[in-house]
Amino acid sequence: MFEQGSDIPFGRSLPPVVERIAKQTEDNPTPICVLVVGMAGSGKTTLMSALQESTYPYEDEEEEQGEGEQEQAQEEEGGGGDKKPAAKEPSSSDPNTMPAYCINLDPATLEVPYNASIDIRDTVKYKEVMSQHKLGPNGAIMTSLNLYATKFDQVIRILENRADNHNLSKYLLVDTPGQIEAFTWSASGTILSESLASTFPTVLVFVVDTVRCASSPNTFMSNMLYACSMYYRTRLPLVICFNKTDVVSHEFCMEWMRDYEAFQEALDNARSNEGEGGGFYDSLTRSLSLVLDEFYNQFQQNACGVSAMTGDGIEEFWKVIDQAAKNDFADYIDDLRHRIEEQEAKQKAMARAGVMQFQKDTDESS
Ligand SMILES: Nc1nc2c(ncn2[C@@H]2O[C@H](COP(=O)(O)OP(=O)(O)OP(=O)(O)O)[C@@H](O)[C@H]2O)c(=O)[nH]1
């Protein structure tokens, strides 16, 4: 709906992202922010790494170079044959060819296997937060996020400056804490994601551990409920990314989303083979899959399978992201506009009611 250069009727209170989308051109597209969330261990960090790796412009260069030239280039880079550049910053001034710009928002992670240009750990020391405030691991993650949220306007300013100077890659990848609820159900998580979403078109990527779903339809259901609740909370375009397809294909998940009967059959099998479910739990899962029918219909085309380990499916992943950013973000802006109008109408009604009450009070007292 909002194509490049199109005329958007700006409301005064619409966020900067609307203007950014309207002003983008083919040579200078607005960066798309990809917010990676998912249950602990689903493979978020590994996926971040694979995604960034896929945006390095190496393969073509290597094909063009002769063997001798490659060796020489490796020597100049410091040898070792490591494909990743040592520099943290994007190397080119063309956003389309820059490696994805990565941000780490997980304060507790020990190692970040990708090049994080902005890292929460540079600002907030998780271990110190833990000992200073006498907190447990989850409390320390929440407090670290709270502390970081107070400074996040500075991060947004850096990103805006880079984008304005054409010095930000096409994709902005954001890794989130493994303790999903610390990010998704906290005020600071909301501040961080809303700040990004109001600055750049933002797509929420919900990473699912396909292997765990294969062994239990109830785990699949728990993941879908969580993805749905995240969509409900953020209202952002959502992509469901079934990870670890090198171990098991995600086709069965796609089928469960498409076909209610197939999921019911899987539940029956799990019950007879594994003793999973039964009683109220079983009937609840069955009716939940009916409830999620609308959600599945909407997001089937936004679901894809990848292996963060081997890189399989990453190309398709980017296509799904582009499509979600282009098509679904229009709905997001429409929804935002409605919410703003509703808010303004409510404020006007309250102001009118206040004036009427004031008149009534003065009439009564005179
Ligand atoms: N086979 C396979 N294993 C994977 C894949 N992606 C991640 N893993 C493994 O899954 C485990 C968890 O991966 P992480 O990337 O740390 O997952 P995460 O979601 O970031 O974890 P938390 O931040 O702790 O929630 C690691 O042992 C990875 O090696 C994949 O595509 N295939």
UniProtKB/TrEMBL annotation:
The keyword Magnesium does not apply. Keywords: Coiled coil, Cytoplasm, GTP-binding, Hydrolase, Nucleotide-binding, Nucleus. Residues 30-210 form the AAA+ ATPase domain. Residues 55-100 are annotated as: Disordered. PANTHER family: GPN-LOOP GTPASE 1, XPA-BINDING PROTEIN 1-RELATED. Binds to RNA polymerase II. This is GPN-loop GTPase.
